[in-house]
Amino acid sequence: MSFKVLVIPEDFTKDEHILKPLVEKVLSDAGRAKAIVEVCRNPNFQGISECLKVARLRDEVVQRYPMVDLFLLFVDRDGKESRGTALTHVADELEPHLGGRTFLTEMARQEMEIFPVAGHVLSEGWNWNEIRNDENVKNTWFAELAEREGAAHLPHQGRKKLMAAAMKNWNRICQRCPEETTQLANRIKKLL
Fold first, then answer.
1. For the whole model, what pTM was predicted?
2. Does the CA dihedral 185-32-191-56 come out positive or negative?
């Protein structure tokens, strides 16, 4: 029996190239290597305020995709300490509408672009703690990585290429981003 996972990003257009391989590997680490992972494209929320609306998630995602076993709302933290509380609220509000399915939330600290950066060798002078805490990692470290790796001219600044290369260094990603990788895999193991 297949296990279907729907990853819900703020905006799939760029995030899907990072989230799909990341979540596939997290699920593999959680014992669900054969899970079918899709990134939600309909609706495309196009922003954090829209994808935190419980009614939209209930009506446009949970009810629209009855074949999904696990929903994973995965958004940017954006330096907002309260983002975790907001995500917990969303999951709690959706619980009665799941019909035995699972709805989890996770956030990239601070933006999705942290994951391709985490999998690459850091440039001279880069400090991981500084990168990890940068609320604008997309326009600073990721942009510099894309330039360094000759991917800045590619669609979506080479997110697909850079993430594919980063995934070859999965242990490095897990060491640098344990909350969104190892700890998320452990949460999934406990729930399923």
1. 0.96
2. positive
